[in-house]
Design a protein that fits this description.
By secondary structure, this protein is of the alpha/beta class. Helices cover about 20% and strands about 25% of the residues. It is built from 10 helices and 20 strands. Helix 4 runs parallel beside helix 7, helix 7 packs across helix 8 and helix 8 crosses helix 10. The radius of gyration is 22 Å and the shape is globular. The structure holds calcium ion (3 copies). The site of one calcium ion (CA) has 10 residues, from loops.
């Protein structure tokens, strides 16, 4: 096990951090900082305006392996992952994944559920992926309905260990993440890290890795995990608002897949604030968010195909061709178009179809299934039985629920889909009968 103190001092992004004043005026249902988020608004950047007509990332999960995340940041709180198999606060490891009460992620440093971000780096990365859009607060993430799984692998001084990173990769994959943002660099590739990266790759996960901030060619002088040759690694250089590579960014025609915005990136930070940061740590999450948009639009496609959609649709330019494997910069709109993600239809076209058996024997499980169409903006579902809420669940376009019922007679399912601000998008009900056991 190597500690990273030396490597991190050089390799993590160099924070040209500028603290921004909180916005004084927030017009209703807009994001007051969006106009300053050049990566989202500039023509020729990642094409967020077109991407957002096709996907907002609902149903996608992105693990952020970093310094933790401020769980109650007003622009992030509604998009934090909840571990469905862990009962909060009972002092037990209900899902037997090794961490007690890990309801919203876990720390691989202390092996507990404390993901508090005492640095701000992880909260900044999380906001680039999935800060809420159109909520009247702060700015927006590129995948504003995606969920964030906080996995703490770095402390408040951005120090960690390769063992913690390896554990974090395994934790994220084992708990359902297939998109892992690793804005972390080290000069050491230990066997445990290599094995964890292979473990993730074998399960179809993509690790989006920052290329690092040493202004060097990492084909020659590697930076990990970005330089690992695994197909499951997607590594990202930083570019400025003119599409030119950042001076600090690492490059590599073999090791670095593409570039993404990484200069003066405004996002959420600890203390419910916002700040501007520069480096490849800010570039990688734009690519993670793009995978989330693609995965939401085309959940039927494997992550490898979505990864290929990103690298085959980059904006090519001369200087990038010589420095990067794909020869270009991230174009989320083009990637979505390339997988046939069509424009999201208006909410008025949303439909929800419930199906249930008309009769079920008393004491057996009554089942309901539902399938929603044209409802990309549903963030969560509520399932009620006879007017009582029995389950709240994360977004998925097609899902199911069952419950054992004894009481003979007529019963009724009701399913409601809500958007991230709690507005009702779609609802449907269906009744069925419980009949006596033979
Ligand atoms: Ca647990
Ligand atoms: Ca528990
Ligand atoms: Ca916002």
């Amino acid at each position: 096990m190597h500690t990273w103190s030396r490597a991190l001092a050089h390799n993590l992004w160099i924070g040209l951090a500028l603290l921004l004043a909180a916005p004084a005026v927030a017009t209703a249902a807009s994001d007051p900082l969006l106009s300053e988020q050049w990566a989202l608004t500039d023509a020729g950047a990642v094409d967020a305006p077109d991407a957002w007509t096709r996907s907002l990332g609902s149903g996608s999960l992105v693990a952020v392996l970093d310094t933790g995340v401020q769980l109650d940041h007003p622009d992030l709180a509604s998009n934090i992952w909840t571990n469905p198999r862990e009962i909060p606060g009972n002092g037990r490891d209900d899902d037997a994944n090794g961490i007690v009460d890990d309801v919203h992620g876990a720390s691989m440093l202390s092996l507990n559920a404390d993901v508090n971000d005492d640095n701000g780096h992880g909260t900044h990365v999380a906001g680039i992926v999935a800060a809420s859009r159109g909520n009247g607060v702060g700015g927006s993430g590129l995948a504003p309905l995606a969920q964030i799984m906080p996995v703490k692998v770095l402390d408040g001084s951005m120090r960690g260990t390769t063992d913690a990173l390896a554990l974090g990769i395994r934790y994220a994959v084992d708990n359902g993440a297939r998109i892992l943002n690793v804005s972390v660099n080290t000069d050491y590739a230990t066997q445990v890290v290599r094995a964890a990266v292979q473990y993730a790759g074998a399960r179809g996960a993509i690790i989006v890795a920052s290329a690092g901030n040493n202004s060097r060619d990492i084909d020659l002088l590697p930076s990990y995990p970005a330089s690992l040759p695994d197909a499951g690694i997607l590594s990202v250089a930083a570019q400025d608002d003119e599409g030119l590579l950042s001076r600090l960014s690492n490059i590599g025609r073999q090791s670095v897949d593409l570039s993404a915005p990484g200069e003066s990136i405004i996002s959420t930070t600890s203390g419910s604030r916002y700040e501007s940061r520069t480096g490849t740590s800010a570039a990688a999450p734009f690519v993670s968010a793009s995978l989330a948009l693609l995965s939401s639009a085309r959940p039927d496609l494997p992550m490898r195909s979505l990864r290929d959609a990103i690298t085959s649709t980059t904006r090519r330019s001369g200087v990038l061709t010589r420095a990067l494997r794909s020869g270009g910069s991230l174009d989320a709109g083009a990637a979505l178009r390339s997988v046939g993600a069509s424009a999201i239809l208006r909410g008025s076209r949303a439909t929800l179809k419930l199906s249930t058996r008309s009769r079920t024997r008393s004491g057996s499980k009554a089942k309901v299934r539902w399938k929603a169409r044209n409802v990309q903006n549903v963030a969560r579902w509520r399932i009620s039985l006879d007017g009582r809420v029995v389950k709240r669940s994360l977004s998925a376009k097609r899902t199911r629920f069952s419950k054992r019922i004894r009481k003979v007679g007529r019963h009724k399912w009701r399913i409601v889909g809500f958007d991230s601000s709690g507005g009702k998008v779609v609802a449907a009900k269906r009744s069925f009968r419980i009949v006596r056991k033979r």
